[in-house]
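The passage that follows is intended for readers who have already worked through the single-chain material. We present the inputs for a multi-component assembly, then the predicted structure in tokenized form, and finally a short commentary. You are encouraged to pause after the input and sketch how you expect the pieces to fit together before reading on.
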Amino acid sequence: MKATVLVRPKPGILDPQGEAVESSLRHLGFAVSGARVGRLVELDVDAPDADRARAELERMCEQLLTNPLIESYEISLAEVGG
Amino acid sequence: MKATVLVRPKPGILDPQGEAVESSLRHLGFAVSGARVGRLVELDVDAPDADRARAELERMCEQLLTNPLIESYEISLAEVGG
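Having made your guess, compare it with the prediction:
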């Protein structure tokens, strides 16, 4: 089952990469603000159904894909066939 | 106007970060395959309408946010009010 995980720095947490992106974009002349940079992880999960896949993905996020202290995550599953 | 840009390594392009994630997840006992890691950029664009915002975002992607040779990007705009 194909899954997408979006990982974002939590609100209030410093995001130096976002600040660098915003500053660089402004130097290039773009009118932007509030830039935040996170990660996108796409993978195939071998699970019998969507509920099981989602539970596995939550465990992956807690154990490896994110730092739960400073990052939040959003899981989406591609519903393909049954 | 709030915008989200998803940046992915193009198909066929080596993704060492995705390989590391996949290998680590398997070592933890997860049944996963095909892991790919990209970036998520969220920002506010000062533009009079969605078309103008999208055009600006495409220029940002070409100039700074992505490496068009090896990465593809997907732009989404949050439609808020008018």
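Commentary: The longest strand of chain A covers residues 32-45. Chain A touches chain B at residues 6-8, 18, 21-22, 24-25, 28, 30-47, 56, 59-60, 63-65 (CB under 8 Å). How closely did your sketch match?
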